[in-house]
Structure formats: structure tokens, C-alpha cells
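Worked example 3 (structure in, sequence out).
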């Protein structure tokens, strides 16, 4: 549906997009994720036609978009600041998207406005004054205004970042539902990795104008293809590792854990013998509480730090042979105490949860 080939963008000498090759499928919920300044917004704007590419091609629906201005592209954009006109009613704001449609009469427009408001859960809000809406409601109005034109592609630039955490989580779920319902392609720009994981079919993780990894959320989380992707998405413990042998299985000596064998899937980058790192997610480690048993491997540790989240507790646990303590996420199940700093404990681990990165 949308294909970018060899897209480069320069702002003067600054190379903002570097050889981007990308295909986004029809009906897909696609996210561009990355730290501030990595080029997400620039990439979105080149798709929208708000930014010319310096080099390369953007195709939408099989058509080369060179020379096609933003308003003639089958895309519509929702911005971070909702750009709602405070002096207009909700219905007038939504109808603003139709202002150029001279082929529609007043009744047609009113019907379309009502349909668009229903889509975003604001049926009956048409007459309300926009300035009296909550942030979440305003964001829905902005969405309704973009959706009323039935674009083939909706481009969303950090649309939820101005909302508080509760509202944001609610809108995430609603956006997914809406996207499934209307079946159009959504391209979301976000710097919030959790938001991208929750919402997307696929995610492109960007660094410094390049795509570092493009994958579905689970692959990104479980098999990051570089240390920087692993660091950017979720929490990850890194342990020094020494690759001893690369073959059908990969033998690695991991600091603190000893010699392990992992399979090829656990090594998403090409590895060579010698220095590497082993990544392990906090929730794949565990503390063995009194009365619990395990078949898995155990190492001795001492609790160094405790961060209590209500549903979870994050422990830093020091083990022998490792400079940094291991971060371990534990669900606060019934009967599990919150341990004190200094408690001697057993850490449960499993080599299947390691990822080895060059
Ligand atoms: P953020 O999450 O902070 O919005 P981003 O990943 O969306 O970041 P972009 O807005 O795409 O980043 O910007 C990428 C780089 O290009 C940044 O270093 C930015 O300063 C630069 N840049 C963006 N627009 C322009 C412009 N019009 N002129 C010059 N440099 C620009």
C-alpha cells in the first residue's frame, strides 16, 4: 500500500532520513518509534506530502507521489496539538474537514458529522462548545475531523501525548478498536515504547534517521536485533558475555551465570567468537520465595534495592561476578512478602530467556 524506496531527507547539511526502505500494508496499524529527533515526524510528513524527499520515492496505492501535494494524497493527519477551534462547536469542528466538499448539501454533511462523532464515541456531542471539552474529548474531535473524509491512511503524530496516563491508556484501546472497525491504515508516531507495543501490528524503531529494526511487537521485545533496540524497548539487564562457539547452538560464557548454550533464534545479530553481551528481561528472572520450588537454575543473590509498584515489585539483586545488580520483576502474589534490602535470596533463571548481542 505505502512503499518508500531509498528515501533520504536533508535539512541543509543535516541528514534527517537515511536510505529508508519501507512497506506498510493496507489496513495495518504501523508505528514509527524512536527517541526524540530520530526522524519519526519527518518520515510521517514525507508520507503526508508535507515535506519533500531529497532523494528516493514514496508510493501510495501503487502511485508515485512525487509532485502530489498533501491535500491530493489519500492521507490525513492528526497532530499532537489537536488544533481544535475553540470558538466553534464540536459539530462545526468536525465539519471543518468537509469545507471543500461543495458536492455535499447541508443534510449530507450533518449526517456525516454524526457518523464521524459516533465512530469516536461522541454521539450527541455535536452542539457542545469545544472549549468546554476534556483533553481526551478534544482528541476524539480531532480524530472525527480526520476520519470524516474517509482517508485511506490516517497519520497520527503523537496524538495521545498530551493526555494523562489513564486517559492515554483508554484512548489507546479505543484507537485500536476504531482502526479495526474502519479498516484503514494507521501510521502512528510515538516515542512511547509501551504505546507502540500495545497498539501496533508492526513497529519500525528509528535511530538517527535510520530504521534499526522493523518487526511485530513480540519479536521486537523478545528478539531485539541490537543493543540499542534492546535498551530502548522495555527494561533489559546486560551481562558481559564471551562467545565460545558459533554453530547450530551457540556456546557462551555469561558473567555471573556461567557457560550456557543458546539457539540461533536467541542470537538475532551475526555473532563471532569473543566479546558480546547477554540480555535478559527482568520478568524472565525470578526470586525464589520461601515455600516455592523450581526446576530451573538458581544462583545466590543479595537484595540491593526494592521498588514497590503495587502490582509488581522490582528488585535489584547482586550476584557474584557481575558489577551491576540484576533487575528482577516480581508479581506481588498472595503470600509473597516484599523483601528488605540485604535479604539473601535465590535468583531463578533460564538460559532460554537470554538474548546474545554483539
Ligand atoms: P520528536 O519526537 O522530538 O518530535 P522526531 O523523531 O519526530 O522527534 P523529527 O521532528 O523528524 O524528529 O526531526 C528529525 C531531525 O531533523 C531533528 O534533529 C530536527 O531538529 C531536524 N529537523 C526537523 N525539521 C527540520 C527543519 N524544518 N529544518 C531543519 N531541521 C529540521
Amino acid at each position: 500500500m505505502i512503499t518508500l524506496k531509498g528515501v533520504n531527507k536533508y535539512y541543509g547539511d543535516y541528514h534527517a532520513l537515511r536510505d529508508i526502505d519501507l512497506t506498510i500494508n493496507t489496513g495495518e496499524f504501523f508505528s514509527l518509534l524512536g527517541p526524540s529527533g530520530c526522524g519519526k515526524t519527518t518520515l510521517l510528513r514525507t508520507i503526508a506530502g508535507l515535506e519533500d524527499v531529497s532523494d528516493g520515492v514514496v508510493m501510495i496505492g501503487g502511485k508515485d507521489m512525487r509532485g502530489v501535494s498533501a491535500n491530493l494524497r489519500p492521507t490525513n493527519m492528526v497532530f499532537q496539538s489537536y488544533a481544535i477551534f475553540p470558538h466553534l462547536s464540536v459539530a462545526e469542528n468536525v465539519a471543518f474537514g468537509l469545507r471543500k466538499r461543495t458536492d455535499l448539501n447541508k443534510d449530507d454533511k450533518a449526517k456525516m458529522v454524526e457518523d464521524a462523532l459516533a465512530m469516536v464515541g461522541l454521539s450527541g456531542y455535536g452542539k457542545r462548545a469545544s472549549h468546554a471539552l476534556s483533553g481526551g474529548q478534544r482528541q476524539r474531535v480531532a480524530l472525527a475531523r480526520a476520519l470524516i473524509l474517509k482517508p485511506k491512511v490516517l497519520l497520527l503524530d503523537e496524538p495521545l501525548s498530551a493526555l494523562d496516563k489513564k486517559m492515554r491508556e483508554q484512548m489507546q484501546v479505543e484507537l485500536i478498536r476504531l482502526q479495526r472497525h474502519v479498516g484503514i491504515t494507521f501510521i502512528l508516531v510515538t516515542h512511547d515504547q509501551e504505546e507502540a507495543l500495545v497498539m501496533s501490528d508492526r513497529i519500525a524503531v528509528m535511530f538517527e534517521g535510520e530504521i534499526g529494526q522493523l518487526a511485530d511487537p513480540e519479536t521486537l521485545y523478545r528478539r531485539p536485533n541490537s543493543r540499542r533496540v534492546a535498551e530502548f524497548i522495555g527494561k533489559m539487564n546486560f551481562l558481559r558475555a564471551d562467545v565460545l562457539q558459533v554453530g547450530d547452538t551457540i556456546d557462551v560464557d555469561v558473567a555471573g551465570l556461567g557457560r550456557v548454550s543458546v539457539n540461533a533464534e536467541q542470537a538475532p545479530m551475526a555473532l563471532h567468537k569473543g566479546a558480546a553481551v547477554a540480555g535478559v528481561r527482568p520478568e524472565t528472572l525470578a526470586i525464589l520465595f520461601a515455600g516455592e520450588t523450581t526446576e530451573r537454575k538458581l544462583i545466590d543473590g543479595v537484595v540491593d534495592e526494592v521498588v514497590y509498584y503495587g502490582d509488581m515489585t522490582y528488585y535489584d539483586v547482586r550476584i557474584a561476578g557481575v558489577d551491576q545488580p540484576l533487575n528482577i520483576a516480581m508479581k506481588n502474589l498472595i503470600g509473597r512478602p516484599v523483601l528488605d534490602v540485604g535479604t539473601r535470596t535465590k535468583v531463578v533463571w533460564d538460559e532460554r530467556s537470554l538474548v546474545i548481542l554483539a
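Notes: The chain has three domains: 2-222, 236-279, 280-350. The first helix runs from residue 40 to 48.
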